[in-house]
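INFO batch 0412 | record 1 of 1 | parsing
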Amino acid sequence: MNVTGNITGIKYKIFLTENLKEINLDVFDINTVPAACIIVNGQSKYAISKWVSPKRTRSYPFERVYNSLSSSKRITVIPIVKDEGEVGDRDFLQWDTVSLMSLLDVYVIFAYYDKASVRNKKITKQQFNNDYIISKIKEIEEYHSSALHWNLNELNTNLHLLIEKVKISYSFIEKTTGIKLHNSKGIDNFKSNIGDDVSHFMEFSREKAKQAQSREYVTHQPKESLLTLSKAKITILNYLGGKYFLTVDEILIEGQNIKLIEGKHSQNGLLPSKGDIKDGLLKMILYSNLCNVFFNEKTINSQAVLSLTSTKIKKNFSSENSDKEINLFITENNFSPRQKNIIEIIIKEARENNFIVKVQYSK
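INFO prediction complete | emitting tokens
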């Protein structure tokens, strides 16, 4: 089952925001600051988030990016390569990650690690080169074009130089830790596959993304509880040249309408974690802005749905219910004041941005 759609622009209001800690640039260290925070430099303020891997399926980076989206200028730091050692994983930056950040108007600092510790024959607690990141923050502060322009320019002019820094840094880490890393030829191949301009990187990454989409299509994740077992591949195209190969957890066909359902599940709580919910909300930003949607090559109307399931829930509700019905549901399930507040906020976010949120029982 295949779904395709276009995104011509993003219109979305964020409500499940956090009060991010403010940190002065003079004492800023990307390795010790929170996963998302506010940089203060004189009269300027920017939200910044950080990824711990270039692979988006590790450590829920979408939650971190979501927390920065209410700021007018937002930055995210992404390692272009992360090598955990020969017996661990090695991940590389993908074009679609860059394209998604550009679509969300997020400036990307492509970064590299230069320090690490050892645990269980792997390198861990990897640290970014902080001086390099601060220099890039200062460049962005003086940069007056769009995040898209910045991101493409960095890829075209800086990525090959960064790859060389990665090779030097990981060679140093290998010597100082005594942990053997993956063969450096893999990094050379990555550099070669990128080619001399963004278009080569785009095509190389898209093939990798297609392969990942196919793997995920047949995989059931523990944080999903599917009610229809109807996973589908979804390919999203946008005006920035991005093509996202994702997997939607569930689809539901009703006549000429299709519901694109992102599922988050909790085995032990009344609600999934706040981080899981925010990860799902970032998908809602995409799905709620789709147009020209096709299902198996036939035109269809789409509706985005965030499904929050739990083994502890009594009955079900959705943002389409009346406020009276929702309050009754909250009372019957004995939600805490914090959980009640989260429910009220995500209902507001759903109604404002024209998607549906459901809270349901599921084993």
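INFO post-check: The longest helix spans residues 147-177.
INFO record closed
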